[in-house]
């Protein structure tokens, strides 16, 4: 671990960013350039004290998940992220390592989307980051670990939870689409990749998956229109738009409703109530929650 170089890199990257670059309000005039340490720490879900120690050359070696969070908070490119890992004495993650890295271009678009659900997915169906509206609509997914990070894995191993958002009549089509999309990733990454790990695990654990896998269907696309069932506001008819990175490895998914439609009103309601649970026969009141994430390491 190269502490002096790591400290200098973190500080210079932090000072090169402005609040609007990461979706934060500019606020009052700043005495120093760039983001404040507490702002970067908040974006990375770590303690300000720990970031301060890293920038002062006295912090312990960061873990790989923490480095991935820092790379995302500082909007690092792929090359910059790999450089950060090497400075910290860690091996850079491979293309399918599930490190949580988000393509900066997709992150910049996501930062500017606040009033409609949006999330970034890997080609294994892993939710890398999601905005508050996506959390309110879909539930928190970005904190999952292991194979459960993959939506296709959860779809076949936790069907009661994973499929509850979809109408019963649409679930068979969704099952085929999930398998066909995984087949694309498997073909690109190979049997010894994380895609291969997911395939092998599902073949053991889910007869339904095994049967669909044998069909050898291949497709990678998102439906332009879908119906989702929310436990508080009911059915929402949403249009789905996908923006891919150049290598197709990540996708920004944006869900919208036609203006003045019933579904648009339901989305607006979700924007007010957030992720709180509504009690029957009781008035709803907004609840402010604190984001959870990786605590500062000691």
TrEMBL record:
InterPro entries: Cro/C1-type_HTH, Lambda_DNA-bd_dom_sf, MLTR_LBD. It holds the Pfam family HTH_31. One of its GO terms (molecular function) is DNA binding. Residues 279-298 are annotated as: Disordered. It comes from the Bacteria. SUPFAM superfamilies: lambda repressor-like DNA-binding domains. Residues 9-81 form the HTH cro/C1-type domain. CDD domains: HTH_XRE. Gene3D superfamilies: 3.30.450.180, lambda repressor-like DNA-binding domains. PANTHER family: BLL4672 PROTEIN, BLL4672 PROTEIN-RELATED. This is XRE family transcriptional regulator. It comes from Cellulomonas aerilata.
């Amino acid at each position: 671990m190269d502490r002096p170089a790591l400290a200098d890199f973190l500080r210079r990257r932090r000072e090169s960013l402005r609040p609007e670059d990461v979706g934060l309000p500019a606020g009052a005039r700043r005495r120093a350039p760039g983001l404040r340490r507490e702002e970067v720490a908040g974006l990375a879900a770590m303690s300000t004290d720990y970031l301060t120690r890293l920038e002062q050359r006295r912090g312990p070696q960061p873990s790989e998940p923490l480095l991935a969070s820092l790379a995302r908070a500082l909007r690092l490119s792929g090359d910059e992220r790999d450089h950060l890992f090497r400075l910290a004495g860690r091996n850079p993650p491979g293309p399918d390592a599930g490190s949580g890295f988000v393509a900066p271009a997709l992150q910049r678009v996501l930062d500017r989307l606040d009033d409609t659900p949006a999330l970034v997915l890997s080609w294994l169906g892993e939710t890398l980051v999601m905005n508050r509206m996506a959390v309110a609509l879909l539930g928190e997914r970005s904190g999952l670990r292991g194979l459960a990070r993959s939506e296709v894995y959860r779809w076949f191993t936790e069907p009661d939870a994973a499929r509850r958002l979809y109408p019963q009549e649409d679930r068979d089509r969704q099952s085929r689409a999930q398998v066909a999309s995984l087949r694309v990733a498997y073909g690109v990454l190979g049997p010894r990749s994380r895609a291969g790990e997911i395939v092998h695990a599902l073949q053991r654990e889910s007869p339904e998956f095994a049967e669909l896998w044998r069909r050898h269907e291949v497709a990678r696309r998102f439906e332009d229109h879908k119906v989702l069932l929310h436990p508080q506001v009911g059915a929402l008819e949403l249009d789905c738009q996908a923006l891919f990175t150049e290598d197709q490895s990540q996708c920004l998914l944006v869900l919208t409703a036609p203006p003045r439609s019933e579904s648009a009103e339901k989305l607006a309601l979700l924007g007010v109530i957030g992720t709180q649970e509504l009690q029957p026969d009781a008035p709803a009141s907004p609840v402010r929650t604190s984001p959870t994430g990786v605590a500062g390491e000691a």
